[in-house]
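dumping this here before i forget
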Amino acid sequence: MPRFIVNGIALNIPGRHLTPPLREALETGRYEQSEAAALERHLRDGDRFLDLGAGAGYLVALAALRLGVEAIAGVEGDPEMAEVARRTVNRATGADATVEAGAVVPTGFSGSSVEFVRRGGFWASSLPVADEAGQARLTVAALPLEELLARHRPSVLCVDIEGGEAELFDRPLPTHVRLVILELHPKRYGASGVRRIFDGLSAAGMAYCPAGSRGATVVFERVSPE
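structure:
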């Protein structure tokens, strides 16, 4: 099984979940570099961290080293990669972490399961895209955002779910969420989708934070009412 070291975190990833661009990002240390930098800048002692789209468990492991495994959790759509993420955190910390297998869906989603598309590299897997064919599809648990937030009560929420974020923020976030680190995917939903996300987070009392934001990785922080 291919093994990579990114920022001191060992990642053992099954070969069938790799593509040449993903392998290069892992080998050069560019994998989730922007999200990791934002996390390092904003994470505080006492935070609780939830990673939606945990992938290989890299960010969950980084947060666990700072906060302890009892204060972190991850969600990963592909069951195989959810197990990879659990093992990543265990190697880094020596303790077992909570990584739920299932796809994040908007609050109010009807149904207990949903189709999930496994693409060539795990970082591109996601809920189906319209008119998409020829990709392996799994049936996985549907995990509504509201239930995940109630269960894990994060103060810091990281979201990288390959376009599925467009519909997540139409309802207010609970006040215990003070920071959101989010990777945008405008190729999936265009400028109107980006606006929908920004409007939803703004309505929830969050403001865009330039510190830590870089390219498609954006940071939002809760602001106190004036």
